[in-house]
Write the structure tokens for this entry.
Amino acid sequence: MTETLSAPILRPGDTCWKTARAERMAVIIDGAEYFKALKKAILGARHSVLMIGWDFNTSIELERDGCDPSVPNVLGDFLSYAVKRNPRLHVHLLRWDLAFLKMPWRGTTPFLLLDWLTSRRIHFRLDGNHPSGGCHHQKIVVIDDALAFCGGIDATMHRWDTPEHRDGDTRRHEANGVLYGPWHDATTAVDGEAARVLGELARARWQAATGKLLEPPPPVAPEWPDNLDPAFRDVDVAIARTWPRHEGPRGEEVAEIREIERLYLAAIAAARRSIYLESQYFAAPKISAAIEARLSEPLGPEIIIVNPRRADGWLEEEAMGPARALLLRRLQRADRFGHLRFVTPVTEQGADIYVHAKVLVIDDRLLRVGSSNINNRSLGLDTECDLAIEVSEHDAERDDIRAAILAVRDALLAEHLGVPVAELRRSLAETSSLTVTFDRLAKPSGRTLKPFEPPAVNDVEHVLARTGALDPDAPEKMTANFIRAIRLLALPWPKQVASWLTPARKTL
């Protein structure tokens, strides 16, 4: 029997920008499958490839197993090849202008040379139209307005990996051959009207960054990559955004958009049985407070939160780690009924798997995959784009959508626990409990999810976390938060700050 649904979570103009129909939608887990699909999609492009990202790197290999030797496999060479073989094709790439501060020389010069020297149909621009301290964080690729990818994976270094996340996998290497560690990520592919609307959004971002309006490409039928299983068919896809308040390219005031924040809060409030969440960070007090409220309910939802053990980089860890520790302690105190599992994945040999995916699953009702993290920046300072689908009132009988939503959650949880999906589902059928199933299948060693225990937080980190000095949720709060932090630290804060900076000096 189909349960009666409460008010819709996805509300255009509130928790999302708009909804659009997709004939097919796939959720892509980890970079190996994504880069293979991206390569196929670009080869099938007729008129336009529009790539909007936080970072790009021309030197990455797109496929690491058995690729066609007649087609270049390194991103820069591959894009040049794509436009040479199709004289109608234009490729536009937009990247955050300050990514080089985090990762110097990661593809910037090769892309500029590609733009200047090799083709007038490859257009690379830097996106500097964001408030001070903010960044462009959307990860969107649109092919002919007929097929689009949107989620958390950038076409840059360290993103390629398989769901096995094998220890010492030599395919996980940089251009110079240096190996990097396991990396977990997620994105989506959509076609139909949903792809066209993502093209509209991507062109709006291009115009905001460059002042130039790109014309939409001529209508064509999508060429769906044959390696992607469209788990969802004929569904309404919602697009939710964060767009910070700032000055536009012509000096106009651009109003802020906080649809993603409202979507998180509405989804958490609507959960009946379970919340499954993957995020790179857990540092947003508003989101944490919403989860804390649900933990106080005796019959509230079971909650599994998957996070990496540490953020990727010293500054990110100092900005997000202490906030996570303080918020998690609050959640643990609120968890009187044992509904919370806050965990981090490890490989067969116990190495940390870095979680970069941004996924939310509410019961069998809502799935959200995107670029936004559980931190303040993603709610109001950076540009973000998430996709979501919901079993709504007019889709109430769509058991196929419900099953597909649960299939995504179960595949992710089984991947992290290192067990077959069938075993996970047998336990769920026997226990009717997500957390009891987790406790059954989590192992003391080997490939598994381990409980995350928050580390100690020193005085400086405590103040930085409380004030949001390194993680503001709006442009106007950046300076104010720093001033408040300095005042709270008081004397002898220079000595405290010097001690806090010691790890940074070791890495420079």
About this structure: The first helix runs from residue 31 to 43. The CA atoms of residues 230 and 469 lie 42 Å apart.
